[in-house]
Amino acid sequence: YKNHPVLFVGTGISLRYLKNSHSWDSLLMKIMIDVGLEEEDYFDIKARNQFEGEYDYSKIGSEIERIFNERLANDRSGKFKWINDEFYKMMKDYNLNISRFKIYISHIFRNVSIKEDVSEELAVLKKARKNIGSIITTNYDCFLEEIFEFNPLIGNDILLSNPYGSLYKIHGCTTKPQKIIVTEEDYIKFNNKYELIRAQLLSLFIHNPIIFLGYSVSDENIKKILDTIFAYVEPNTAQAEKIRKNFLLVEYEEGSTNNEVVEHDISLQNNKLIRINKLKTDNYISIYKELSNLNLPVSAMDIRKVQNIVKDIYSGGEIKVAITEDIDTLQNYEKILAIGSRKTITYDYQTTPELMINYFKIIEEDNKELLSIIDKLKIQSQQYFPIFAFSKINNKIAHAEELKKQQKNNLLGTLERISPKHKIVYNSICDLIKSDRIARSYKTNALIYNVYNRNISL
Q1: Beta 166-169 vs 210-213: how paired, if at all?
Q2: Which of 106, 198, 253, 313 is deepest in the core (most CB within 10 A)?
């Protein structure tokens, strides 16, 4: 890839990483059972809404919404009293009519947590986020916001978006139940109202590599997107070929370590065949590593910062703008966007304290480029500085060995200065914090002593 890929994320990713997440099918069945009906009642509704061998879950959703809302309206203080309370509060305080059904869906997806056995895979995914342009998702939960720290956009907010660092939640979000798209009526409204949003997303599809995660090859979301794109782009042109090469569908296959991408034909409307790239695997770590190691000229985060500055400039107001080829002539304006050759422009991206404040984010993202700035910084000999971790990420820091000696000397000096009465063995940070044997101001020293002597595990 020559530019920043966009992730298009479906239910499969939430099911992979979250406890108590749901597919569309399992969600609707759960709600039926929770409201007091039987599994077979759900199967009857499914059977009524099967067309040409496929179940129409939007129609199933419409039926279940009617049943759910009627049952709660007729049972004000029953099992779901709290939903009725929220419904009537919204009506009274904000004149907002939110379906009880959608209030419950938002509650279901709000109460999810990350599985214990996926931490290694998610750590690699976090390293990749510096190279991800934006994310589009049909999921309601807030898992992606937590992992990527991108700006979530729902409904018409998508039109005001910055294409870098944005999370497009096209089917709504648990934080705004009124925006959730789940029923046939919701999809009709979406298709009628969101022409401009589709145009915005279409632009992303045409200009960026797109990686589909958490969908199967037969998923209707994939087919609709391809139908939309190739309604505007002739299938047998150079542009169509470029778009096709930029599409990668990652399809889950339990236990597979496969990493070979193959071509796959998808049948669209009017018997049109579109060939895309497909990778069938369970080896997601290898995908995330490749994304993290993409050698792109600038990180997606830096582009986002530039776009935010430019947005401030063209929106007017009190922003001062100076255009020059000589950075030395610039005053300390509020916003500086420097464009030119490396010979004429020098800059300090982050100060030493800023590098330390952002330590965990730098480590998570494996941000090699950012750490090149260390050679331009003056780091005092008495300054504690985490050069060991930084040099693991960027092994081309010229002053690394000198800084490592400084850091070792500082740590050993600190250990020598710790009073014997504070060298008490503790096996956990909690035990140390709760202890009344050491004054609070000396507990940092006791922590250093116990970590250094491996009493407390890193």
Answers
A1: unpaired
A2: 106
